[in-house]
Amino acid sequence: MEQLSIHQIIENIKSQKVFEAVAFDYSFTIKIEKYVPYACAAIHNGHQFRKELWENCIHTAYERWYEEDPETKQMIQSHPIVISGCDSRFEYDLNRAPEDAVFETAWGKQLWHKPLSEAMKNKSVLKHKQFYEVVSALVSTLELKFGFCTVYDMHSYNWKRWDREVPTWNLGTRNLDNERFEAVIEDWRHSLSEIKFPYSIASTAKINDTFQGNGYFLKFITSKFKNTLVLATEIAKVYCDEYKQVIYPEVVALVEKELIDRIPQHANEVYSRFKK
Questions:
Q1: Which DSSP string corresponds to the chain?
Q2: Which of 64, 115, 154, 211 is the most exposed place for a label (fewest CB within 10 A)?
Q3: What percent of the chain has pLDDT over 70?
Q4: pLDDT (0 to 100) of residue 108
């Protein structure tokens, strides 16, 4: 892996170069082993938090971790195209619009002892902007090369705080063209429901049960690219103890192993159906 500027990353993508890089400011990583009609993303995987923000932040490192999506990059790392955030969503949230990406409050709690200066906010918003310049270049290149592509947008959620039974997997599709993509969305839901977990962990998969797919990442790509399907795929945090901050590596490894075959199989079926 090499450290590259945003310009260098975009040039590599446009020239369809195979590479693996971290952005010059360590805000995200990208890997392209081969150009295929699908990509995987883990935009909330990151936990980094700019040091100049530490003393001013009211939330603890654990409180930040609790709302992040740890290990989601690990679950998709075996695929040929992977883009993943390195920074915490508490610095700036890649799944929110630029004007809302820097929190003032987070999950009902004030985030900062003192309001951030415009200069501090702008540092974070610039990272957000540069990430989406790369996303735009990537999806544009894949659409141009293949005519259609699918993006698997991996997230996780805290299932224990719900006061009802919730699914192991949730697909958020409210902002998709469901008439056009209904069949392949259902195929993806069904595939996820087949995954067998250890320790009597249930394997259920539903659509728009806990979340509806209202994230900016999905909206940005869907509004800009008409031949790209973004599947906002949430796994309940059955792969960790969300209250004790303990990761179960064997469960993470199982999810990764299952997705090694399930994602490309599904992506190829989608491509066969929608390619020009």
A1: -EEE-HHHHHHHHHTT--EEEEETTSSEEEEESS--SEEEEETT---B--GGGTTTB-S-HHHHHHHS-TTHHHHHTTSSEEEEE-B-TTT--TTS-GGGSS-SEETTEE-BSSPPPHHHHHHHHHHHHHHHHHHHHHHHHHHHHHS-EEEEEEEEE-GGG-SS---SEEEE-TTS-HHHHHHHHHHHHHHHHTPPPSTT----EEESSS-----HHHHHHHHH-TTEEEEEEEEESTTEETTTTEE-HHHHHHHHHHHHHHHHHHHHHHHHHH--
A2: 115
A3: 100
A4: 84
Q: Identify the structural domains of the chain with CATH numbers, from first to last.
A: 2-274 (3.40.630.40)
pLDDT value for 276: 74
For residue 199, what pLDDT band results from cuts at 50, 70 and 90? confident
